[in-house]
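Changelog-linked ticket: zinc ion example.
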Amino acid sequence: MAELRKDPILGEWIIVAPDRAARPFDHEQGRDHEHDGTAATDLCPFCKGNETATPDAVLTIPSGNSPDSSPDDWAVRVIPNRYPAVSASAEETSRDEFFERMPATGYHEVIVESPSHDVSLQCLSDDQFVHIVRAWRDRLAVVSSDESIAHTMIFKNEGSAAGASLEHVHSQLLATTFVPAAIESELAAGHAHFQRTGSNVWSDVLDRELAERARIVSSDDQFVLLCPFASRFSGQMQIVPRRPMPGFESTCETELQDFAGLLKQAVGCFHRVFPEAPFNLGLHTAPPRDSRRDFYRWHLMITPRLTGIAGFEIGSGSWINVSTPEESANQYRNDIKSP
Ligand SMILES: [Zn+2]
């Protein structure tokens, strides 16, 4: 059973979830359906037709192809994670004021991003991208309304080197009763910047980036795709809305369509520049009940995993980026421009 433990020195919460070690691994078992010609659908719990192999869906997004869509007609399916890091009910933990523990309550869900056994986001259609981001928004809205939830995140691991255990294309939602350290730092920084300057740090960053253009990959009326000035990873990209929007759950329909298009462009561009490379997506969105929400803006991080995380990064929590964000943005821009 999972529990939260507070680091007594740093004050950061860690999820201790030993049950997750038992989850199945496609990649480790060397299943490679595309190349060995076996039918992946016999084995894969995420494929259409194998719904009984998973818990019941908490949300299905219909494909919209049939006028009266049945539950069998799904384009995206959201299910509780069978091996959750946090769950709706957790055992009470023993009380200790020094070594603090808490029950690991929350939500851990899997967003199955295609009914067929596609293994990469880049294979999916424009419509499918819209279905996926709609599922993200709708589940975030539901989960955020739970008063016990302090923080929500959507993330994706694509490729085993990025942490994916099952190859069928999917993302995950993790909602916790604490705010993780990286998000707390972003909230505190946004608040401090406002107190110092009277303006929103996200607006100020976008203004500078759009004036300089050196790190902009692509932009439209609503969103900007860029390589952040102080990117931690080689080739890291970020999608930021131009409008001050703290939480992704309040994204409107036209923004959703537009965001899906830009995300598809970013993923396609990434795969052409770095073929076969694993990557992570992380959707950072304002904690639902934090008083500093107004100084925050949701953003999506696209993090290539071109090199491993080494000793300095593990030891220090600081990062060495082996390429400049200007050079990365230039590579992506050239790819988008080329016919
Ligand atoms: Zn599958």
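Closing comment: Example verified and attached. Residues 3-179 form a domain with the HIT family, subunit A fold (CATH 3.30.428.10). The chain has two domains: 3-179, 182-337.
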